[in-house]
Amino acid sequence: MKLNNNLSKEDQMVEKLAGKFNRMIEMLRSMMEFVELSDDGIKTKIKRKCDKFFRKMTFKGEALAYNDVRLRTCHSEILPGDVSLKMRFSRNVTLNIPIVSSPMRDVTESAMAIAMAKLGGLGIIHKNLSPEDQAAEVRKVKRCLSAFLTEPVCIRPDDTVEKVLKMREKENLKFWSFPVIDESGKLIGVATRKYFDFCQNNQQSIGKIISPEVVSAPEGIKIAEAYKIMMDRGIRILPVLSGTGELKGTYTLADVKRIIQNDKADYNVGSDGSLFVGAAINAGMSDLEIRLSLLHQAKVDVVVIDSAHGWSEGIIKALKYCKKTYPKIDAVAGNISEAGAAIDLVRAGADGIRIGQGPGSICTTRMIAGIGTPQVTAVYSCAKALRDADVPSCADGGIELSGDITIALAAGAANVMLGKLLAGTTESPGEIIRSPEGAAYKNYRGEGSLGAMIENRACRERYGQADNAKDKLVPEGVESTVDYKGDVGVIIYQLLGGLRSGMGYLGAKDIPTLQEKADFYQMSSAGLKESHPHGLQTIKKAPNYNI
Ligand code: IMP
User: Fold this and answer.
1) Could you say which of 143, 445, 462, 500 is catalytic?
2) Which of 83, 118, 426, 437 fits a 20 to 30 Å CA distance from 265?
3) Pocket test for ligand 1, best of 66, 99, 104 (most atoms within 8 A of CB)
4) What is the model's pTM?
């Protein structure tokens, strides 16, 4: 500070001290993000170890990506096999494993959503389908397992066996028991596998081959009673009837048994025993009203308002509409990368937040638009802003290896969303493509790629574009292919194995403890080079390392 020589020595001293105090006040102001005043004095708001690390980075104006950091190890008494991976996707949608499949055309329809929920995670059905088709995909997931089906697939007595077999194949139904009802919804019988197996003429009508004797139960029957009846009478499906004989739903033995015996504790199911499932929606009101209403009828558990810029008025308006119209359906909003955005979306009613602007493998947003925060910093800032709000946040995009999942969760995310790593599996939509050399692969394209935008209004809307003329579109993603990888369960197994291992290194018995204990190092480029296999002639393919 330059002192004024016309002042007395004492005044010069005062001026000097005032300058120092000003600097101290500035420092105190910036520290307020990390401390709070209470009746007992000053309490530190540095609740987690990593707060200090990120505070330093914030002061330097640096934002970090997955490859910029690694976690410090801690003394541990925890074995990887003993850790709990339970978290939530949204206020009311639980996860037994913290992995969610992305709502992309090449990633999640019902087959992926069923597989993910059975593995303990969650699938979000993409929105490039008509509202009717998307609701049908949701229904397939909800029906796949539910112990009590309120809308079982029914057939009519005059349907031929051939018609039912064709319908079963077309809709990819895995079960063989169908209630047979008349026009007024009254139950006439149940067509089970034995009738199809022993039928000698597929032109026969169902009504002619089924037995008129049916075991049924009255409305309101509890699952334990249903189980007893089914076991005592040796039946796989129990129709539940109203007082006047109309079919109200069915219990299915396999699902009832699973719930009673809890033999598949990892399945991610709601209180009614059906698999949890989500669906993506656009903010555009014309589509939103009908889509939401059909998804509601299909009993979707959570909707994801899907946008490249979640911190915008259109998304906030759509979110408020969702929560006002269907308060029982959780609504997750995004995508964002700033703390202020997280706070605004939660204030507007969000039950979960999706973080990620630009980290996706197929994404070009950061290069085309020049915006976005590297993902670890984005996850930390948004999740930190939500610590007191009890709203989970999802780290979406950019996960390359299982170690990135450990880092995303350690930085504060409740779960991660995957696109590329789940594309190219048996359960992802789309055909396996074979090259003349015999390589097998599947398409994986960005929702904001040129091809996706030309084909689909939902993709254009995600990026705020209306015109679908090729030369009028400004893509923010690319079209690509990925190797065919086999069943998704194999991929998830390896990813969870890596996560469990990371938690073991930190001595974290569960994810909240991981978040408490996590502290980071910034990695130099030499450190990154040292971290990958190096100095080798060849590297054999490993099941969890394919860079
Ligand atoms: P990945 O797991 O790295 O492949 O990232 C998947 C995520 O990228 C998705 O969940 C979306 O949030 C995001 N995304 C999908 N398509 C695009 C695109 O075309 N541009 C930018 N981001 C995209």
Assistant:
1) 462
2) 426
3) 104
4) 0.80
